Amino acid sequence: MNKHIAVINGDGIGPEVTAQSVRVLNAIAEQFGHEFTYTYCLMGADAIDKTGNPLPDETVEGCLNADAILFGAIGHPKYDNDPTAKVRPEQGLLKLRKSLQLFANIRPVSTYAALEHLSPLKAKQLENVDFVIYRELTGGIYFGEKKVAEDYSEASDLCVYTKTEIERISHLAFKAAQQRRKKLTLVDKANVLESSRLWRKVVQEIAPQYSDVVVDFLFVDNAAMQIILNPKQFDVVLTENMFGDIISDEASVISGSLGLLPSASVGAATALFEPIHGSYPQAAGKDIANPTGSILSAAMMLDHFGLHKEAEVVRAGVNWALANGFVTKDIDPVNYYFTSTIGELISDFV
Amino acid sequence: MNKHIAVINGDGIGPEVTAQSVRVLNAIAEQFGHEFTYTYCLMGADAIDKTGNPLPDETVEGCLNADAILFGAIGHPKYDNDPTAKVRPEQGLLKLRKSLQLFANIRPVSTYAALEHLSPLKAKQLENVDFVIYRELTGGIYFGEKKVAEDYSEASDLCVYTKTEIERISHLAFKAAQQRRKKLTLVDKANVLESSRLWRKVVQEIAPQYSDVVVDFLFVDNAAMQIILNPKQFDVVLTENMFGDIISDEASVISGSLGLLPSASVGAATALFEPIHGSYPQAAGKDIANPTGSILSAAMMLDHFGLHKEAEVVRAGVNWALANGFVTKDIDPVNYYFTSTIGELISDFV
Ligand SMILES: CC(C)[C@H](C(=O)O)[C@@H](O)C(=O)O
Ligand SMILES: CC(C)[C@H](C(=O)O)[C@@H](O)C(=O)O
Question: Can you give the pTM of this predicted structure?
Fold first, then answer.
């Protein structure tokens, strides 16, 4: 199989973890007789530094011409502490999501026996945790009209959802539930927000088309508790953009390490794969970042290409490394391996 | 001291837990020679059933004429599952917060040795947890303009903040930090939202007036992780309405029981005290709900009246009951006491 992949290293530890995924993808290509080619594109603080623009046109074009996108991380502290900055790295990612219509962010949440001691949760909470969050990614308050008064006396953000936006991701989430344990939980704040009430209405309307799926509803404040109190109750969690941002990051602590978790952002035409961790600038350039979140994102990409056997081999490599103590500093601060060593070991395993 | 208290029982378990607080307040009054008088007011589903209005005018008036308000809980499932309902219990609470300008919701988060086994978090996470969340309560997306298209093709909510709204709660939070461990953490999403950038700007501007307080900033998605991973890092957490709703409920799981946690909502003219738990309709009328969240809210009310010794006695009563196994079913499902028994025991302790 021939596949063309756009690679966006991004900021901070982005380049180093992404390099290991490319290495693993190359090992898979060689092993299974595929051809993967790559175009490197700029985005984020990196792109601002080099071009003044967090998302140069060539990047959008490069992504549109690719079969899928592998992305590292975005963000730099120099922008975070300047609330009046006009250009910001994150604009690049938001604009890319919008341009490519990557409307569904999919984040599996599971646990690893080898990491149990790192989880903040008790063993009881970790039993049988296996759910996936479907976060709407191109609508809501992130993309609604933003205003700030010239004298900074007032600022606002608008949260808008259309029925169509809610429907398309809801169908994906219902279909995922049908392939899983047949339960879908909508997280909203329908007791207060009009947009949440629209979500609830649309999901209630669609539900009869998936009569084998049991639907329930949770207010986001309650969901923030339930994810910690009883995470095994969830199968597919569906939610809007901002709530998804918050609860999927919250859910990511369950496993014991952020460094391990992958995600996929899918649209009608293409899909982007990225680890859920951020750019973590303190660790950049030190060869200590955990590359497995990115490598498992590459595995999700292989699944997306229909290469399920190959994806399984990558996941087996990650599990093998974990089980044998081949881990980065975030997981074992004493006996640890470098980012590049983990990438090499998993490539060799493949 | 003479104090007049407006009591709003509200919905579900509201009446039964509030009754125990009144009992404890009466015991305090007798013991310390105060006179507390009460006016009972309607709000929520209860008020809709009786008057058609979730917040009758007499309730606002009753609250304005009182020195403080003791409130139970709000909400009923029959409204939650009808996204097109025009009247909802929660409107009552939101309107009351707005009418009385209760702009700061204050929620202490701490742990109890006797409940450690109930916490979903490991002992390591629970060490030295002692922080307080200042949630803005009368602005943001809860109160911004709401729209829904007649054909339900689109819906929106506007999140607006003015500089003045941010300033008044920020000053309270900074002052609280000065009385505590001198650290303030602003939780926002300044990398995406214009309103969050205004929060960050205003807090940065105010900070020099409180030069003994160390200020840091966390994006809300990161905060949702840090609260679980390392809660002891927090002292005073300041945030806007919706983020505060989510992270304060998340933080409430740390202690091991929601049933124990109090809150105060303060404004320029008056203050309202309520347990953080909801109306929990499944338990209503069974005399099994935990009244300590409400009783500790009453203790916060005593503090608000300047009756610190009295507040300490109430807290001592709660600690004594907990330490001696006088607990409700949520805490010990086998050897448990009734709501009313706990109220009686704590009153007797006083
Ligand atoms: C970087 C930021 C804009 C982004 C978001 O909030 O969407 C990130 O937190 C994420 O979750 O992918
Ligand atoms: C009932 C609801 C409107 C309320 C809120 O979200 O503010 C509640 O969840 C709370 O946190 O006090």
Answer: 0.94
